[in-house]
Automatic annotation (TrEMBL):
Segments traversing the membrane: 12-31, 37-56, 63-81, 87-105
Keywords recorded for this protein, A-Z: Membrane, Transmembrane, Transmembrane helix
Superkingdom, taxonomy of origin: Bacteria
Full protein name: Integral membrane protein
Gene source species: Lactiplantibacillus daoliensis
Upper classification of the organism: Bacteria, Bacillati, Bacillota, Bacilli, Lactobacillales
Keyword Transmembrane: yes
């Protein structure tokens, strides 16, 4: 059974974090592309987006899929400019981050489903 999305305080906080994360990422990329400040901004935006997804219950697929993509690309961007501009390390960072975040959210859903059966 699919749980419907409702606006709770947690979901409002999550939405605020997602908006701030996307805004910070855009500012970091547009104003400081490839610099140390841009990398730190991208990593901070990555963390804000991830925490925003964690606080959102349930996470709609139309929000989850693009956010996983943005989080993964932010990790790849930070890896590319932090290393010696290694494309291989950047692509690996994107794939590993996408896998971990996707697995984490499917694991959370599975644990919730099993926990509801314990009662």
């Amino acid at each position: 059974m699919k749980k419907s999305f409702t606006w709770t305080l947690s979901n409002l906080f999550a939405t605020l974090l997602l908006v701030l994360g996307v805004g910070l990422l855009l500012v970091a990329l547009l104003m400081s592309f490839g610099t140390r400040i841009g990398i730190e901004g991208a990593v901070t935006a990555l963390v804000l987006l991830l925490v925003g997804l964690i606080f959102m219950h349930p996470v709609p697929l139309k929000v989850l899929a693009p956010m996983i993509g943005i989080i993964s690309l932010s990790a790849g961007y930070a890896t590319y400019f932090s290393s010696q501009h290694s494309w291989l390390a950047s692509i690996l960072a994107i794939l590993i981050t996408a896998g971990i975040v996707s697995y984490g959210f499917s694991l959370r859903r599975t644990l919730k489903r099993r926990h509801s059966q314990w009662y």
